[in-house]
Automatic annotation (TrEMBL):
The lineage of its organism: Bacteria, Pseudomonadati, Pseudomonadota, Gammaproteobacteria, Lysobacterales. Keywords: Membrane, Transmembrane, Transmembrane helix. Pfam families: EamA (PF00892). It is a multi-pass membrane protein. GO terms for cellular component: membrane. It is found in: Membrane. This is EamA domain-containing protein. SUPFAM superfamilies: Multidrug resistance efflux transporter EmrE. Its main location: membrane. Residues 2-132, 150-282 form the EamA domain. The chain crosses the membrane at residues 61-80, 92-110, 116-134, 146-167, 173-193, 205-227, 239-259, 266-285. It comes from the Bacteria.
Length: 286
């Protein structure tokens, strides 16, 4: 379970880096750009993807392209959500995106809904409602906070559906990661060069270093999660539940203790509801 713990740490560390970005004077569009370069290089060097899978009539570029174009924008929304809505709400929203992914599995991929999964969906929807609720005193001051976690939830579920489509086409995960990271990097790099030419923002070493760290953490999250599944091939539900519940719990602790994030009673209720929903869905996978 050490791999799961490391994956959880990397996931929450990404949120912490986003929260600290203004203090560190990081230009997040630049950091996100270099993050995808790091991801592509690590996927190429460590995962040994079959490069022949990237070309030919069976290469699922119809899914790789939209996924690669979606990821950078979603990452920037994730960063904005962490800064404005907090680590706790954002991490819970990101993990509860599995509810929409599960609905897509039932409707698009022909998966049968079990009793545990239906119960998890019901509790998860209740958790989302509690998560997005705002205390009355804070509602006027942060009226848009609920929108960003909602976009994170929908966006992350969309990426999961695209990954499922890619897997259904038989593309190796390593090749898919290389393709999507590369697709994400190219337009982001073009955007940074355009910003540089316009003179509004200059490429800087501080944001480059932040992007390298972000890329390592992001890839570490993916790599350790995959390693956990390889180490426990007979317990995919355990790995799934442990990863998601671990992020919710650690994200809550870090957000509340390290950054003083305040939650209303309904927001606090979202935490046990989300954990129970994840556990039930994981139970349905077993």
């Amino acid at each position: 379970m050490w791999f799961v713990a490391l994956a959880v740490l990397c996931s929450v560390a990404v949120s912490v880096l986003f929260r600290l970005a203004p203090r560190l004077r990081l230009d997040l569009p630049q950091a996100v750009t270099w993050n995808y370069l790091v991801g592509a290089l690590l996927a190429l060097g460590l995962l040994d993807p079959p490069l022949q899978a990237l070309h030919g009539e069976h290469a699922p570029w119809r899914w790789w392209l939209p996924l690669g174009l979606l990821l950078p924008g979603l990452f920037l929304v994730l960063a904005a959500s962490v800064r404005r809505a907090g680590i706790v709400r954002t991490d819970i929203a990101q993990r509860l995106s599995l509810l929409l992914s599960l609905l897509a599995a039932f409707t698009l991929f022909g998966q049968r809904a079990g009793g545990w999964q239906i119960a998890g969906l019901v509790l998860g929807l209740a958790a989302i409602a509690c998560l997005l609720a705002r205390p009355r005193a804070a509602a006027a001051a942060a009226a848009t906070d609920w929108r960003l976690p909602l976009v994170v939830l929908v966006g992350w579920a969309t990426t999961d559906v695209l990954f499922k489509r890619i897997a259904a086409d038989g593309a190796p995960l390593s090749a898919s990661l290389l393709a999507t990271f590369t697709v994400a990097f190219v337009p982001m790099l073009a955007w940074q060069l355009w910003r540089q030419l316009r003179g509004g923002v200059h490429l800087d070493l501080r944001s480059l270093a932040g992007g390298l760290l972000l890329g390592l953490l992001n890839f570490g999250n993916i790599g350790f999660y995959l390693a956990a599944h390889r180490a426990l091939p007979g317990a995919p539900a355990t790995v799934f539940a442990s990863m998601n519940i671990g992020v919710v719990l650690l994200g809550t602790l870090v957000g509340a203790l390290a950054f003083g994030e305040r939650l209303g009673r309904l927001n606090l209720l979202a935490i046990p509801l989300a954990i129970l929903a994840i556990a039930l869905i994981g139970r349905g996978m077993g």
